[in-house]
Amino acid sequence: MNPHSARTAVRRRDFLAGSLCAFSWTMLEAGGLPAIAQSPPSAGPGSPRLIEDLVAANRILADQGIVDAFGHVSARHDTNPNRYFLSRSLAPGLVTTQDLIEYDLDSNAVNASGRAQYSERFIHGEIYKARADVRAVVHAHAPAVVPFGVSTVPLRPVSHMAAFIGDRVPIFDIRTAAGMTDMLVKDAARGHALAAALADRPAVLMRGHGMTVVGPALPFAVGRAIYLEANARIQLQAMALGGPVTYLDPAEAKAVMDSGENRSYERAWELWKQKVQAK
Ligand SMILES: [Zn+2]
Predict the structure, then answer these.
(1) Is 52 assigned a catalytic role?
(2) Catalytic residue among 29, 52, 102, 120, which?
(3) How far apart are CA 222 and CA 205, in angstroms?
(4) How much is the pTM?
């Protein structure tokens, strides 16, 4: 099949899938069919580069100690902004291409095929819904950031590599949003509340839980997660020394960002990716 025929076939398949789905939902709403679980239509495969980078992002976050058995990273679909890719429920260090699942922004799986899913996938869907600029989301339980979510000491930039923090990192308290819970963002309402706490920022701390970090591409979300965790460790060390700590002035943080945030993480991404792909 030549490339043009292939594209036409994909379009025809997507159209048919969309029509079938719309038909089914209409019938369901009219009470014409028994209520059976419906999967949203696929937007087709992501680009090979996106899929490769998402697998690499999982491995990089594990390699850099930002995630362990828990935590996850997603990427928005590169041709349909209403879809995103996230692994099935699996330790990020083990993720391969075959483990990725396509989701709609309500976090309904397109192709789970019976595979276990992350209960906190709503973090991703609700942020993509709220933030058109976000194309990648990292959620992690990195221990170094947790103290700043449970104390009155704000996490602030002490390193130029974390200038994206600006003047502060907001804190999401799930108790305020949903009362006494198991602490997990495992439904759309909790995900929506988390996205509201994140607002237009690059990161949000989650009280007693961890952090969620976003970016306009995978290298940004992954790089910010890595340097946010590093900044937390450096700040804890600086504070442990006992004297006053000098943080980046907001004007300095802005100047760093204006000069190109860590050169778009390009040099770091190349290194991190090669390191995990050599394993
Ligand atoms: Zn979590």
Answers:
(1) no
(2) 120
(3) 15
(4) 0.87
